[in-house]
Amino acid sequence: MARKLERGVLVVLEGIDGSGKTTQARALLRRLRRRGYRAAFFREPTRGRWGREIKRLAARADSLTPEQELDLFVRDRRENVERHLRPALEAGRIVVLDRYYFSTIAYQGAKGIDTRRIRRMNESFAVPPDLVVILDVDPRQGLARIEGRRTRDELFEREDYLVRVAEIFRGIEGRAFVHLDGRADRRAVARAIWERVRALLPPRP
Hints:
The chain is an alpha/beta fold. The chain has a single domain, classed as Rossmann fold (3-Layer(aba) Sandwich), CATH 3.40.50.300. 48% of the residues lie in helices and 14% in strands. It contains 8 helices and 5 strands. It has a 5-stranded parallel sheet, with helices on both faces. The chain is globular, with a radius of gyration of 17 Å.
């Protein structure tokens, strides 16, 4: 029987494109479920109305201004918080989230928008995370990892741009944040993430 927690836990995986965050998010989800926890997986941009619009427009490098990007991401996130994150957490689930508003801080901040303003906008409605794992890789290595993707986001997947994005990610700190080397062995990274997640969970009966 799946174990319901008294209080949900929100774990966020962050990093530049090709950092391995999606791989690690799914690995964490499998580990939690094998251990009997009620866990849910979500990602941003979502597959909702605003998320689909972001993906459609991201195929062209000049499709949006930074302010338009910010507006779409905030709209998509509000919907995600209301429809998915808050209900799952209130139901006592462990939520594994692939990207959150820290990506908006890094990606739109790298295009010149004040990062403090972005943070204030999002924290006015976003659910606070219990743990944010930021995976750090060299932008060139990250782009090499995603070279085989069928679709590319020309709006975001450029090396010179990702250098600035990675720099902002490295500067995000706080009690809930941990920075890990995304270049390390995938299994070693997964174990490091699990150790930090396990510390947030109640002892097994």
